[in-house]
Here is the input.
Amino acid sequence: MTTARTLLEFDATYAREVPGMSLPWSAADAPAPALLALNEELAAELGVDQAALREPDGVRFLVGQGLPEGVTPVAQVYAGHQFGMYQPRLGDGRALLLGDVVDLHGRRRDLHLKGSGRTPFARGGDGLAVVGPMLLEYLMGEAMHALGIPTTRALAVVATGTTVQRERLLPGAVLCRVAGSHLRVGTFQYAAATGDRDVLRALADHAIARHHPEVADADQPYLELFRRVCAAQADLVARWMLVGFVHGVMNTDNTTISGETIDYGPCAFMDRVDPATVFSSIDARGRYAYGNQPSIVQWNLARLGEALVPLLTDDDDLDTAGAALNEVLAAFPDVYAQRWAEGMAAKLGIAEPDLELGTDLMTMLHAQRIDFTSFFRALAAGTARDLFLDRDAFDIWAARRDALLPADRDAVAAGMNRLNPVVIPRNHHVEPALRAAERGDLAPFRRLLGAVSSPFEERADLADLVGPPPEDAIPHVTYCGT
Ligand code: AMP
Ligand code: MG
Here is the structure.
């Protein structure tokens, strides 16, 4: 019998190249593993036969049991600023890196388990994860991927057959996650805090080899690495903003070096435009609100810059090293604004970026509480005006846009509809789908997953998943019971 074990060629690049930053560890036993969701498209990309993953041995593999000879899972260590407070040692408390594989496109990808039991970094946690939040991570990752936004993705969610104590007893699950890497800003913070320049250099060299091999021969490779991570994050957060995505926990340990979205916890898509939109019950002060995300990621990148300082100088000329990194960081707002303006221009169907037209639109959508996602489809359809109470304000703005539109209006509308989604995973549909899944009914989850995986398609049979909740619906709050 061919199994997943024999089909995946694992390497352990991270553990080998970055000594001292991970610990070998094994997954906890799962008494009755049952496959809840398998990403067939992603399995194919990895070169794994999805049928093999559905076999009992395949499902056991997906929870870290019966691993192939020579595969040693590790728990990665990292530090991080959580809500602005430095935590010197976080790390994979309930997760394991199985290793990395090269996919069919030649890209190196990590395979990682979440919810696989306590590790030496578990602190007070139980090391476990539950079905609802793991399916949420699966759903959100696929929605983001379909929207063209860099993200980690779930290969599978497997129910473990155990019950886990949260605010109530819930079914346990393990997520198998695929990522460009699991390097975080917090990984660099931890390496820098060891005070051992060799560890930090090994980590940075590993990051360069993995994500930006072209900078290895630059005059200042570590400064170039920083510039590229800043650019990747500017692009990522601009893309979040352009679909109304609120990450919810933008701690430095949840900010990747790859520029992929990672760790879907209390995240959600904004319905009516409001920069203060927050979904997380633990973010009472709105640190990670929708409108704060660009400045927060810049703050996180400043922490990465600090960690890199020792690598930019051989003779402890920290001032010069710091100044070079600061110059790159200071350019972040412009780099971000450029990315955002370009993306907004594409959403609006205009040929040239116009930052002011975009920011004025956001102000108007906020003032009139317009649903963000619906607006752009309505604009392409010529019905946007109907969404506004103050139609004069819309008319004035629309006239400015009209002046910038290319002549072929049908082509403009078609182009807009290729990048403005009809369906996003809205809270008022996500929540009931996850609750049903917890009770063993996966049909609503699968239906929603199918819809958000083809977000630009208008389908009559999925019309109920389109549009915001009723105006008087109770605002959504995500509790941190992950
Ligand atoms: P997060 O906010 O989910 O990114 O997690 C922050 C830190 O808490 C990471 O170091 C996680 O590994 C750890 N963590 C979260 N939940 C648990 C848990 N149930 N058991 C052990 N560690 C956890
Ligand atoms: Mg995290």
